[in-house]
């Protein structure tokens, strides 16, 4: 049996329209549409062509999907201009990788989920303070390595093999598990803020749809989580310069632009100085890409689970189990940290994992 949802997953992940793909595999668009809605089963020859065009083995389409995100409140941190094709591609990638993660999680005992959604009416500041406590962050401690810290708290953090053009991250609750998906980037400061922003949605807006007000609340949460105002008052000099902000960026991991906004909020700079600083950044070509670089942090959990189950080189076994190609499995694994790539803070592994039988014995 061929599952229509699998056809849609693979096609939208590959950014192919029904019309284009139908022509490539020699069927009508109506036929392909019916196949995706489980009203028609593609003959094997057409399925093989479909598989070759989308990069998934034929077996992938013959296994029922376990994870479907459509219909769930989903929050994207995206730039202007993100369209349905880009958001659908990210969600389909998230479904495919989350499914493989959940299959592995069922075979292991990992950290319990300690991050929960807040009661309605909780302020972003209160939620951020509570979250820092849950993550074991002292009041003046930067939240560097946040993706790793969230995995210690039981959150499923996955990295998608997709560029972050127009999209940075998205989050949702799947069943009773918060899922945070990060897109590929080399800008660690933007990744850190996106991770905190999406965490804000997870704890504040579990059942809510997207809106401008909720985006503002998620940014407020991110600001309080990453740059607590009491700590910023102590760390930030009076009348800070671009050089001062660059030093603060290295310590706290957030962008100079975010720190300038915080400085105005704290009264360290006035509106005129605020405007002047952003003009300086524009003149230096730093409004979109700042010179002071912060390395991104890869999540670890997905790869740690694969290594625990399949051994130190899990690509081929993961591909066989997940019904992926070995190349796709290696691509996904490469977005997740090896033990040596983890940040130095805390532990050598992101989660304490053991096979389920062994842990219960």
TrEMBL record:
Sequence intervals crossing the membrane: none
Pfam families: HTH_31, Peptidase_M78
Domain HTH cro/C1-type: from-to ranges: 7-61
InterPro entries, per database record: Cro/C1-type_HTH, IrrE_HExxH, Rad_response_metalloprotease
Domain of life: Bacteria
Name by which UniProt lists this protein: XRE family transcriptional regulator
Native source species: Nonomuraea guangzhouensis
